[in-house]
Amino acid sequence: KNGEKVKEGLQRKKKEKELKEDEEKIAKAERMTEQKRKADKLAEEKRIKEEQEESKRIKEEKLAERKRIEEEKVAEYKRIKEDQEESKRKIKEEKILESETEES
Q1: Gap between the Cα atoms of 49 and 43, Å rounded
Q2: Angle ∠(2,8,14) on CA atoms, nearest 5
Q3: CA distance 64 to 22
Q4: Running DSSP on this structure, what letter comes out for residue 1?
Q5: CA–CA separation, 104 and 35 (whole Å)
Q6: Given this model, what pLDDT does residue 63 score?
Q7: CA–CA separation, 19 and 64 (whole Å)
Q8: Measuring CA to CA, which residue among 84, 99, 14, 29 is closest to residue 76?
Q9: pLDDT exceeds cutoff 90 at 7
């Protein structure tokens, strides 16, 4: 009888030890899962932030391109206006020269 009780006691202790090890493994797995979830969340937040920054950069580039094109148009308009003014001035000078030549 004593041999059986000792054997049962050892088996019970072995089962308790296995149960405790299983609980530790489960707790460790839960911690790992939680860490992975946090890491995944951080990675997702980082990806979203990078996408937002890329979108902002693209918008800024498009805006800068539009501004550059607008400035080129304005510069072209001013150049054409100056050419027209120069042409008018030359025509006036030629008319003045012609009238002075005719008078003399």
Answers
A1: 10
A2: 140
A3: 62
A4: -
A5: 102
A6: 98
A7: 67
A8: 84
A9: no
